[in-house]
Design goal:
Serine Threonine Protein Phosphatase 5, Tetratricopeptide repeat, 2 domains, 15 helices
C-alpha cells in the first residue's frame, strides 16, 4: 500500500496543475456562486470520449481522485477521465448542500437545489462543452457520500458508478439503497467503503451491506471494503484506488485469471467472450475501444487449447480490421482452413501472410514452415 501511495503522490506532483482549472460557477438553481475545479487529460481530444467523475467534498478528495485517474490510465490501461470537483468546505457548505430531513431522511430544500445543481447545471455544462462519455461516477465522503445515493432514487440513475466512503446515512437509507439497487434496470457499480470506527452509523452501514449482498442481479456490481486500521480521515485514501481498480477492471487487457475463469472454463465458443467483452465496454463507456493485441493472443491461445478452431475465422476477420498491415489475420485464417481440411485455401492464405509484417510471436519463418508442410502434403 505504501508503494502505491508513493506513486500516487509522485503523479500528483508531476504537472497536475497543468490540466486543472478552477472557476466560479454561477448557479441559477442555487442562486449562488460556487467554486468548482476541473481536470482534463493532458492529451484531451474531441475525437475521444471520456468518462466523467463528479467529486463531492472537492476540497479534500479532488486531487486524490485526479491522481488515481492519472495513475490507472497511465499504468493499468484504464480510460482517461474528466474529473469535476465541487468545493464545499467554505462556510460548512457541505452540511447545507447535503443535509436531510431528520424525520424522512430526504434532502432539505437546499439539498434539493444542490441535487438539481449537479444534475441540471454542472453535468449538462460539461456534456455540451466537452467530449463526455455516457459513463459517469460520483465520489463522496461522510454526508456527501450519503447524498450521492439520492441519484439512485430516480427512474434511471444519473450515475453508473458510486464510490461511497464512510457514508453518514440518513434515516432508512440502509433499506432504501438496497431496494433501489434491486429495482434499477441498468448496469451499476456500487462501492461501499468503511473504516475502523464502531458507532451507530457504521452499524447502519453494515446493515445496508448485508442487504445489498443478498441481491442477485447480473447488472449490479457491488463491492464492500472494510479497513479496520483506517480512521475517519485515512479511509478515503484506502478506498478510492481499490474502487477505481474494480470499476474499470473490464477495461484492462485479459489477465491470466480472467483467461482461466472466463475463457477456458466456459462452454461457449472462445471468440464469443472477446466479442461480448468489447460490446459491453462500448455500451458502458460510449466509445469503441481498440482491441488489445494481448486480448487477441489470449483468444488465440484459448482456441488452440480448447480445439475451438471455428473461432479462428471470426478472430482472423477481426485481426484484418484491427491490424491490417500485419500477418495476424491471414495467419489465423490459414490455420482455420488447415484445421478444416481445406489445404489449398490454407496454402494460399499462408502465402498472403508471408508477404505482410511480422507481429508478436508471428514471423515470416513460421508462415514459410506452414507453407512447406502443406506443399509436402501435396507432394511438391
Amino acid at each position: 500500500m505504501r508503494s502505491l501511495l508513493t506513486l500516487l503522490a509522485c503523479i500528483m506532483s508531476l504537472g497536475l496543475s497543468a490540466q486543472v482549472t478552477q472557476e466560479i460557477f454561477e448557479s441559477f438553481k442555487l442562486q449562488e456562486r460556487r467554486d468548482v475545479s476541473y481536470y482534463f487529460p493532458e492529451d484531451y481530444s474531441e475525437e475521444k470520449k471520456y468518462p466523467l467523475v463528479v467529486v463531492l467534498d472537492g476540497d479534500y478528495l479532488f486531487d486524490q481522485v485526479v491522481a488515481t485517474s492519472k495513475f490507472y490510465s497511465k499504468f493499468q490501461g484504464m480510460p482517461e477521465t474528466i474529473v469535476v470537483g465541487i468545493h464545499q468546505s467554505k462556510n460548512d457548505l457541505r452540511l447545507e448542500d447535503c443535509d436531510y430531513e431528520p424525520d424522512t431522511g430526504l434532502p432539505t430544500e437546499k439539498g434539493k437545489l444542490f441535487f438539481e445543481f449537479l444534475g441540471m447545471e454542472i453535468i449538462p455544462y460539461l456534456e455540451t462543452s466537452y467530449s463526455v462519455a455516457p459513463f459517469k461516477m460520483i465520489v463522496g465522503f461522510d454526508i456527501t457520500a450519503n447524498f450521492g445515493n439520492y441519484y439512485l432514487f430516480k427512474e434511471k440513475s444519473l450515475f453508473n458508478a458510486y464510490i461511497s466512503i464512510a457514508p453518514l446515512l440518513a434515516p432508512e437509507m440502509e433499506s432504501r439503497v438496497p431496494a433501489r439497487l434491486s429495482a434499477l434496470d441498468q448496469q451499476i457499480f456500487y462501492h461501499l467503503v468503511v473504516g475502523g470506527n464502531n458507532d451507530d452509523n457504521k452499524k447502519a452501514t453494515l446493515q445496508m451491506d448485508r442487504a445489498i449482498k443478498v441481491l442477485d442481479k447480473e447488472n449490479l456490481n457491488y463491492y464492500f471494503d472494510e479497513y479496520p486500521s483506517a480512521n475517519e480521515i485515512s479511509v478515503a485514501t484506502y478506498g478510492i484506488g481499490k474502487a477505481w481498480d474494480r470499476t474499470f477492471d473490464m477495461f484492462r487487457p485479459i489477465s491470466p485469471k480472467e483467461y482461466r475463469k472466463n475463457i477456458l472454463a466456459s462452454e461457449e465458443p472462445v471468440y464469443d467472450y472477446l466479442e461480448k467483452k468489447y460490446a459491453k465496454l462500448e455500451e458502458l463507456f460510449g466509445f469503441r475501444k481498440q482491441v488489445e493485441l494481448n486480448d487477441i493472443m489470449a483468444i488465440y491461445a484459448g482456441c488452440r487449447k480448447k480445439d475451438d478452431f471455428e473461432s479462428l475465422k471470426p478472430l482472423s476477420d477481426l485481426c484484418k480490421r484491427e491490424f491490417p498491415e500485419t500477418m495476424l489475420g491471414f495467419y489465423f485464417e490459414g490455420e482455420y482452413y488447415e484445421e478444416m481440411g481445406e489445404t489449398k485455401k490454407a496454402l494460399r492464405t499462408f502465402e498472403k501472410a508471408f508477404g505482410m509484417e511480422e507481429i508478436d510471436f508471428l514471423t515470416k519463418e513460421m508462415a514459410l514452415d506452414k507453407m512447406d508442410a502443406l506443399k509436402a502434403d501435396f507432394g511438391y
